[in-house]
Design brief:
InterPro entries: Bact_exopeptidase_dim_dom, Peptidase_M20/M20A_hydrolases, Peptidase_M20_dimer. This protein is α+β, with helices and mostly antiparallel strands. The chain has 7 helices and 7 strands, in the order βββαββαβαααβαα.
């Protein structure tokens, strides 16, 4: 939009992972947004009838969205957290805030579900006697794949080779898996083949997808964490901060250099 990527020939990117592979799936489009509710504070025991709970509005909105889940496609994702829900139990919360991600296969579906969620927020405000304010933080498209760049990255991943790990490093990875009750496979040392056709979407969303709509873009993943441990968890951080985790970054740097 602002011309930052104007004149750029191509973009290459990598992501830490528990597998070694060239990206061959489009991920999901997404809207990230917050809904703030404004009510009226009152003493929750002495005169609650004088209050209007912003937290009630958040809870009612979330309940409505959870009922909505039955009627969206299995490929959609709706998740939220409540960053602000009041200060103390004896005060009716006059302010509350909920943060949502709405994900789907493409922008059209995201927009459809986003508008549905906003209607639920409006209903929650009406039902609780509160007002609301919506803040759209960002929206991203699905990732456009580029086959020639994908194939080049695959060749260079094969050329550089995936990370290999010592017995001590593998024992550490298995200890992470054991603590999380997943199969004790250790670090993955295999390179996934590049399938002939794009694969079904998996994982989350990325702002790199926006760049892929401007210029040819391709990405890949290199192992930095033990296989099949929960992503965005303490165990991923523990793996990535070790010498074993850094091996993945070194391999990625070499592949990027060889391709660029």
């Amino acid at each position: 939009r602002d011309g930052i990527f104007k004149g750029l020939d191509a973009v290459l990117e990598w992501h830490p992972s528990d597998e070694n592979s060239v990206r061959n799936q489009p991920g999901r489009a997404m809207n990230s947004f917050e809904v703030e509710f404004f009510g009226q504070a009152a003493h929750a025991s002495a005169d609650p009838w004088n209050g209007r709970s912003a937290l009630d509005a958040v809870e009612l909105m979330n309940y409505g969205v959870n009922l909505m889940r039955e009627h969206v496609k299995p490929t959609a994702r709706l998740h939220y957290v409540i960053p602000g829900g009041g200060e103390v139990p004896n005060v009716v919360p006059e302010y509350a805030r909920v943060w949502y991600y709405v994900r789907a296969l493409n922008r059209e579906e995201v927009q459809q579900y986003y508008e549905w969620v906003l209607n639920i927020a409006e209903g929650a405000a009406l039902a609780t006697g509160t007002t609301r304010k919506v803040h759209l933080i960002t929206g991203v498209h699905e990732y456009l794949l580029n086959r020639p760049l994908q194939e080049t990255l695959q060749v260079n991943l094969e050329l550089v080779g995936v990370p290999t790990f010592t017995k001590k490093e593998q024992a550490f990875a298995r200890s992470m898996q054991r603590s999380l009750k997943v199969e004790e496979k250790g670090f993955n040392e295999e390179l996934e083949p590049l399938a002939d056709e794009p694969q079904p979407p998996k994982g989350g969303s990325t702002d790199v997808a926006e760049v892929s709509w401007i210029t040819p873009t391709a990405g890949f993943s290199v192992v930095t964490a033990a296989e099949e441990i929960p992503w965005h968890s303490w165990a991923v951080t523990a793996c990535s901060g070790t010498a074993a985790g850094r091996k993945g970054a070194v391999v990625a740097a070499k592949v990027l250099a060889a391709t660029g």
